[in-house]
Amino acid sequence: MVEPANTACGKFAHTHFHHEPFDVRTPDWRFEPGGRLTDANVVLPWMVFFRDRERLAKEYPDLHLISAVPHTPFRYLPSGGFTMRALAPGFSYPLVKGLRYLLTPLHGMLGMFMTVELEYRPAAGS
User: Fold this and answer.
1) Beta 113-120 vs 2-4: how paired, if at all?
2) Structure confidence at residue 35 (pLDDT)
3) Mind listing the pLDDT tens digit for each residue in 102-116?
4) Residue 54: which H helix or E strand, with range?
5) CA-to-CA distance for 42 and 114, rounded, in angstroms?
6) Residue 63 near residue 53, CB atoms below 8 Å
7) Residues 6+ apart with CB under 8 A from 46
8) pLDDT tens by residue, 67-76
9) Burial readout 86-114 (b: 16 or more C-beta within 10 A, e: otherwise)
10) Cα dist. 1→62, 78, 86, 103, 115 in Å?
11) Element (H, E) at 7
């Protein structure tokens, strides 16, 4: 799965430039239903896989987090994301791509998204 990351850059971008809430203080994994894509909590995957890792293991013992790799610092914003016009001209793509490559060691702090890999391993007798 590719999900929003709770990094410094991810939190800033999703808090200031995204229409869905980014609320790490929510105690539960639920949110009030409302309009299409307007009442979700964009940080919910981070809450499930990191903040509440023990709860996930207890409630879903057959589901195992294999990896969660942060990536995509800055490239999403100049593209305009899903709803905005592109903020950078098409010819700047190689420059933005090169910047992303140079920042690879900092993806843990700057990545706006994370690729999450899960594995389902049923316990013996399930």
Assistant:
1) antiparallel
2) 64
3) 888 888 888 889 999
4) helix 53-59
5) 12
6) no
7) 3, 4, 5, 6, 24, 114
8) 999 988 776 6
9) eeeeeeeeeeeeeebeebeeebeebbbbb
10) 18, 22, 24, 22, 6
11) none
- Residue 115 and residue 68: Cα distance in Å, rounded? 5
Q: How many Å is the Cα radius of gyration of the chain?
A: 17
Give dist(CA 82, CA 37) in Å, integer. Answer: 12
pTM for the whole thing? 0.77
CA 49 vs CA 52, 65, 91, 124: distances in Å: 6, 7, 37, 24
How many other C-beta atoms are found inside a 10 Å radius of the C-beta of residue 124?
A: 4
The domain limits of the chain are 2-120
Question: The tokens of 46 are what?
Answer: 């981070």
Give me the count of residues in the chain: 126
